[in-house]
Amino acid sequence: MTHQIIQFAATIIVSLTILFPSLKMAKHAFLKLLNATIEEESMMDVINILGRYFEHYCEFSDLRARSAGRKIFVEVRLVLPEQMPLAHRHVIAVNMEKDIAQNVPGVEVTIKTAPCRRNCEYVKRNEPCP
Ligand SMILES: [Zn+2]
């Protein structure tokens, strides 16, 4: 339940920080307010990077994080446009994993990709997938 709230909050924060870069500072205060765990804070950092690639994918879902020792393992399912070739999907996932590995210390992320089933947020708004 808490993770769903965090994911929802994170989605809003990511949208807002894309529109208003100065709001990035608000993130930390917001997380403190939510009493976020270290896993949730890592998820937020991961989401921030996912946000940089927003023009490449339809949406992401099933974000989870667990910690083992000092490492935090984050998993996310990335929905990519159906017409995108498999090799291209793979390249995007690998690039994002690398970006996260370089920018979020202690976090190991696994990105699973899936083709869009024409039910993403874009389609719901009657827009084409990116
Ligand atoms: Zn889509």
Describe, in plain words, how this protein is organized in 3D.
This protein has 130 residues and is of the alpha+beta class. The chain has one domain: Cation efflux protein, cytoplasmic domain (Alpha-Beta Plaits, 2-Layer Sandwich). 48% of the residues lie in helices and 22% in strands. It is built from five helices and three strands. It has a three-stranded mixed β-sheet. Helix 1 runs parallel beside helix 3 and helix 3 (38-52) packs across helix 4 (86-103). The structure holds zinc ion. Residues 58, 81, 116, 120, 122-123, 129 line the site of zinc ion.
Can you identify the CATH class? Alpha Beta
The CATH superfamily label reads Cation efflux protein, cytoplasmic domain
CA-based gyration radius? 15 Å
The fraction of residues assigned to DSSP E strands is 15-25%
Percent in helix: 40-55%
Which ligands occur here? zinc ion
How many DSSP-defined strands? 3
Tell me, what's the shape? globular
Fill in the CATH topology.
Alpha-Beta Plaits
Q: Strand order within the widest sheet?
A: 1-2-3
Low-confidence stretches: none
Number of spatially distinct domains: 1
Average per-residue pLDDT, rounded, comes to 84
Task: Please identify the oligomeric state.
Answer: single chain
How is the main sheet built? 3 strands, mixed
Number of helices: 5
